[in-house]
Write a structure and sequence with these properties.
With 405 residues, the protein is an alpha/beta fold. It folds into three domains: 106 residues, Serine Threonine Protein Phosphatase 5, Tetratricopeptide repeat (Alpha Horseshoe), CATH 1.25.40; 139 residues, Orthogonal Bundle (DNA Cyclobutane Dipyrimidine Photolyase, subunit A, domain 3), CATH 1.10.579.10; 118 residues, HUPs (Rossmann fold, 3-Layer(aba) Sandwich). It has a five-stranded parallel sheet with strand order 3-2-1-4-5, sandwiched between helices. Helix 13 links the parallel strand 2 and strand 3. Helix 5 crosses helix 6 and helix 10 packs antiparallel against helix 11. The longest helix has 20 residues. The protein starts with 7 loop residues before the first helix and ends with a helix.
Length: 405
């Protein structure tokens, strides 16, 4: 997959192009990793969906309209997976805290351990000698994308064949994936490691790689770890208890409002902006928050393009902010004369952490941080308390609730 423009028009054009393949073709071919620029059986829409330049409901509606419920079932399930992971992390935000803090510990160990540093560098630069793994590392860095099946194989080999810390691998993905999402990335790596579905790690197998890469790669069984044991022993306390969903503060319509645009939702025009007394607008660049290490320029550029396109669509003069010193947000809003900031809901992840750090300065300035949520999230997240099967069973109810059936 190659990406140049992060705009709503580009997202909608790619959606129209993929609609004919959302049914049986997707179900038959979705597991095949055909290599860079030849991923014909998957949509490649994830970087746009990540920023909601195209909406999950639009994908589902298009699939149902073109192919019907039965033939579109696999595609719809994959769309719902994204919402499930987001909801699951909202219900267990401690898992994000654990990943964030554990990554700092792993990076500190990396500084101290020269042997580990060499091994990680070889893995990230595609110099391990394992052809399939090295090709995926290069594709990720060069294109900002990897097929979902390749992501699973890569993570499994990173953890179980090379014995590298899983959080360092997740961070490598997060720094380079254009569709990098705190929930999908963190929980995807945890799933492979046997931490999400406890004691059930994902094993990369030679025959599976050979089959689903169309024999582009034919690793020998001896090249992959023969013993795959989940890492659930590293978390003997088990999963944290499910938490109630965070209740975002609803905005008022009769107070001066500063509108904040982030890459978490670049379809801000879907919300009733004309009901607010808007005294200021800003786009907030925050891709650098993904990691303590350098985030890929392609990720930052894609975010920047999405923010610029969003500002253009709503036809407002906007300031450009960067998520640096958290108290700067209060200074900007106060300078606009705002008494509240309104932004689409920001889920658990690095930007949520930054906004939480900004909260004391906002409160001291008498400025409320208000969020606008989407019905799609509200329909899925309450069910995301255990494995995906529970949400999968609810898909007909969710689609009916959203008037998609």
């Amino acid at each position: 997959m190659r990406y140049t423009t992060a705009t709503r028009l580009e997202a909608e054009a790619r959606l129209r192009d993929f609609i004919p393949r959302m049914g049986e073709k997707y179900a038959r071919g979705r597991n095949f990793d055909r290599g860079p620029d030849t991923h014909r059986d998957v949509s490649g829409l994830s970087p746009f969906v990540r920023r909601r330049l195209v909406l999950e409901e639009e994908l589902v509606f298009a699939a149902l309209s073109e192919h019907g419920q039965e033939n579109a079932e696999k595609f719809i399930q994959e769309v719902v997976w994204r919402g499930y992971f987001k909801g699951w992390l909202e219900r267990r935000p401690q898992i994000w805290d654990s990943y964030r803090d554990g990554l700092l510990e792993d990076l500190s160990a990396l500084e101290r351990d020269r042997s580990l540093r060499r091994a990680v560098l070889k893995a990230e630069t595609g110099q391990t000698g394992l052809a399939c793994f090295d090709a995926w590392a290069e594709e990720l860095v060069e294109t900002g994308y990897l097929h979902n099946h390749a992501r699973m194989w890569f993570a499994s080999i990173w953890i179980f064949t090379f014995g590298l810390p899983w959080r360092l691998g997740a961070d490598f993905f997060f720094r380079h994936l254009l569709d990098g999402d705190p929930a999908s990335n963190t929980l995807g790596w945890r799933w492979v490691a046997g931490l999400h579905t406890r004691g059930k790690p994902y094993a990369a197998q030679a025959w599976n790689i050979s089959k689903f890469t169309g024999q582009r790669f034919t690793p020998g069984a001896h090249e992959l770890s023969e013993t795959v044991e989940g890492l659930d022993h590293t978390e003997p306390q088990g999963l944290p208890q499910v938490q109630p969903l965070r209740m975002a503060k609803a905005p008022e319509t009769d107070v001066p409002t500063a509108l904040l645009i982030t890459e978490e939702d670049c379809r801000i025009e879907d919300f009733p902006l004309d009901t607010f007394d808007i005294c200021g607008v800003a786009s907030l660049s925050a891709s650098h928050l993904r990691s303590p290490l350098q985030v890929a320029d392609a990720v930052k550029d894609f975010e920047h393009g999405a923010l610029v396109d969003t500002v253009r669509r709503i036809d407002h003069v906007a300031d450009s902010l960067t998520a640096g010193v958290a108290s700067d947000l209060a200074r900007w809003a106060a300078g606009c004369g705002a008494r509240q900031i309104v932004t689409p809901y920001v889920p658990t992840g690095p930007l949520r952490d930054w906004l939480s750090a900004a909260q004391p300065a906002l409160e001291a300035s008498g400025i409320a941080l208000c969020e606008l949520s989407r019905p799609w999230d509200r329909a899925i997240w309450p069910h995301a308390t255990a494995g995906f099967f529970k949400v999968k069973q609810k898909i007909p109810q969710i689609l009916s609730e959203r008037a998609l059936l």
